[in-house]
Amino acid sequence: MAPVPPPQPATNQSTSQMDPLPQSVFTLPQTAQLEALYTIIRSKETRRGDFLFYSDRIIRLLVEEGLNHLPVVKKVVETPTGATYEGVGFEGRICGVSILRAGEAMEAGLREVCRSVRIGKILIQRDEETALPKLFYSKFPQDIASRYVLLLDPMLGTFIPVGIDAFLMHPSATGGSAMKAVEVLMENGVPEERIIFINLISAPEGLRNFCGKYPQVKVITGWIDEGLNEKAYIIPGLGDFGERRYCE
Amino acid sequence: MPPVSVKPPPKNTVLVSHGRPPWYDERGNHTMNAFVVGIAGGSGSGKTHVARQIVRSLGSIPSVVILSQDSFYKKHTEQELVDAFANNYDFDHPSSIDMDSFAECLKDLKECRQASVPIYDFTTHQRLEERKYLYGAAIILTEGIMALQDAKLRALYDLKVFVHCDSDLMLARRIKRDVAERGRSVDGILEQYLRFVKPSYDNYVLPSQAHADLIVPGSNNQVAIELICTHIRRKLDERSNHFRAKMATPHLYTTPSGTAIPESTLDELDLTIMPQTRQIQGIFTILRSKTSSKQDFIFFVDRLSTLLVEHASQFLPYASRSVITPTEAAFDGKTMSAKHICGVSILRSGGALERGFRRVFNNVPMGSLLVQSHGEDGEPLMLHSMLPVCVRQRHLAKDTFVFLLDAQIVTGAAAFMAVRILLDHGVKQENIIFVTFLVAKGGGVPILRRAFPHMKIVTGDVDPALRDDSQGSDGKQVWAMLPGLGQIGDRYYL
C-alpha cells in the first residue's frame, strides 16, 4: 500500500461564495449531514447543550481533516495473525495553539482526536491607541519551533481598519487576530508552511486577506459564508461562538 | 374461571436455556417457523403442569415461550365489569376470549416476528393498556381451556394436545386451589362451577378434544410427555439449518444446480469504504500492529469508530430546514429527517464501536444482541436480545433507521442473524446501516450482500482472505482474517 499524498486543493467543493478558492484553503466535503450539523449550530433557537455537542462534532471532523496534511512514512507491521501489513506511520510532532477565548472551545475536540496533545495559547486584543491587533499574552510549548501547529479559532472574518466599534466587541470575528497569531508563531520560529489554521466558518473577505498575507499556511474551514454585515458579523454565521459556547 | 383476590403467578414466560439457532437460509429467507404446541383441557386438568413438564423434559433446547389463553380475555365494558365482580360474568364461554388477537399474536410468534401480548389484570378484571413484548421463540406452547376451540388457532398448531382428566379430580383440584390461592368459599366455587364451568366444559372444552392429535392423561403422564418431547426434538432437528462453513468460504461450495458461487468483485459487494486518507491509513497501521499498546488500541478504535459513524450518517434522510441565526440572517440548511434512530451492537466486539457512535448520536437508544458461535460447526446462536422500543414495536420499526455495529465481518454468521432479527421486527432493509472496521472479501460478506442487497455496509477497510484457524481451538471451526487486526474484542476489552 502506497502512502497517499496529502489532500489536494481539487477536493474543494465549497466554491459558491468564492471561486476560485485560494490554493491553501481546504473545506470539508459539503455533504447533507454536514449541512444538517451547521443548521443546528447556526439556529438561534439551539440551546447550549446541543450547540456544544454539534459544534464538537464539526470540530473533530475539521481536526481530522487538518491532520491529513501532516506527513506520513511507509511502515511495515506484523498483525496478531502473523501476517505482515504495509501501512504508514505518523511523522512529525504537533501542538495546538488556541486564540483566546473562542479558540479554547475547540480544544476538547482536538484532544479527542490527538490524545494529550500540547496546547499553547494566544490572547490578541485591539490596541486602544493604534486600533491594530496587539499580542497581550502567549504561552507556547518550549519546542514549538520543531512542531506542526494546529491554530484554532472558530471564526475567520476580515481585518477591520481603524474606527469601527464592532471590532472592539468582536476581535475574533476578524482576520486580523488570526494574522497576528501567525505572525507571533513565526516569530517563535515556526515555519509558515508548518501552520494549519482550523476554523468552522470563514468570511470570503477574511480568507482573501489571510491567504494573501500567508499563502503557505493551510486553512481548513468547514463552511465559507456570504460575507460580513455592517456590524462586522459573519452572515449568516452563528453569532458569537465563544459567547454561545461559554456564556449563554 | 374468574379468580378474585390473589394475582396468579405469571403464565406467559420466555425460557432461554440454550440460545436460538438460525431460522433462515443463506438467501436470508425464513426456513423455520417456530414449533407450536396447543394444549387444551378442562380447568384443573393440569395443562400448565403438562406445559412446564415439556419444557423441563426438553432440557437443552432453544428458547421456549409459554403463551396462556388468560392473557387474551377481552377488554370489558362497564356492565361486564359489574357482572365480573358479582361473579355473574361467564369467563368460561368462548366469547370471553379475544380469539382474533390470540391468533394474531400466535401467528406473529410462529412466523418469527415480535408479538405484543396483552396483559390481563385479574384483580381489576381488565385488560391493561401496556403489552408484553415477546420475540425469538423456537418453540411455543399455548395453553388454555379454549386452546383448541378456534379454527384460526388450530391452523397454527404443529401439535394439538388435549389433557384429559376425570371430572371429579378436576373439581377437587379447583376447590383446593381456589380456597388456598384465591381465598374463595367452597359454596361460591361450587355455584360458579355449576353455573359456568361445568356447562362450558361439556359444551365447548370436551368436544374440542376431537381436534387433538394426542390425548394426554391429567395425571401420571410422564410417558406421554416423553413422547411429545421426542417428537418436538425430531421436528426441530429436521428444520435446523447449518451453513456457516458455506458463508466463510462461499467459493468452495456449489449451488444445487451444480455451479460454484463465483468470488464476488468489490463492486458487487457494494461496500461503502472509508476514503483512505493518511490518517485512516495510519490508524489502521497502529490497530493492525500486534505490538501496539492496549492504550493505543483503545484510543484509535474510538477515533476510527467516530469517523466511521460520521461517514455512515450520510445514509440517513435529510430534509430542507431554514433557520434564523443570532445575527438575524436566514440560513437555508438541512435537517436529519428520520423519525427514529437507534444503534444496535452485536456483542461482544460490536461494543467497541459504541463510544464512537455516542460521539455522533448522543441521545438515541442503544440496543444489543449477544450472538455466539457454538459447537463443532460454529453455528451462531442468539443468546440474548435487548432491542430499543423503536424496533420492538412494529409500527415504529418501519420508520426506524438502525446502525448495526460489529467490529468485523468474518464469516458474517452473526451479522446475518442480527440483520434477520431486525427484519423480523419490521425494520426496512434499506434502513439498516451496518458499520464495521473491517470486512473480509473472501469471507461471508458476499453471501450477506446477496441475501440483503439493500442494506448499507460501511467499513474502514477490506481484507482479502480468511484463513482456517481451527487447529488448537477445541475442535471449533475458527476463521481468521488476513492480514486482519486480531480479536478486536479481546484487544479492546481484555
Characterization of this structure:
The complex is a heterodimer of chains A (about 250) and B (about 500). Chain A has seven helices and twelve strands. In chain A, helix 1 packs across helix 2, helix 2 crosses helix 3 and helix 5 runs parallel beside helix 6. Chain A has one domain: Rossmann fold (3-Layer(aba) Sandwich). The N and C termini of chain A lie far apart (about 50 Å). Chain A has about 250 residues and is an alpha/beta fold. About 5% of the residues of chain A have low confidence. In chain B, about 35% of the residues lie in helices and about 25% in strands. The longest helix of chain B is centred in the middle third of the chain and has 20 residues. Chain B is elongated and about 85 Å long. Chain B folds into two domains: about 230 residues, P-loop containing nucleotide triphosphate hydrolases (Rossmann fold, 3-Layer(aba) Sandwich); about 250 residues, 3-Layer(aba) Sandwich (Rossmann fold). In chain B, the strands form five sheets. In chain B, strands 9, 12, 13, 14, 15, 16, 17 and 18 form an eight-stranded mixed sheet that branches. In chain B, strands 1-3-6-2-7-8 form a six-stranded mixed sheet, sandwiched between helices. The N terminus of chain B is likely disordered. Chain B contains 17 helices and 20 strands. In chain B, strand 13 and strand 14 form a beta hairpin. The chains are: A alpha/beta (about 250), B alpha/beta (about 500). At the A-B interface, helix 1, helix 2, strand 2, strand 3 and strand 12 of A face helix 10, helix 11, strand 10, strand 11 and strand 20 of B.
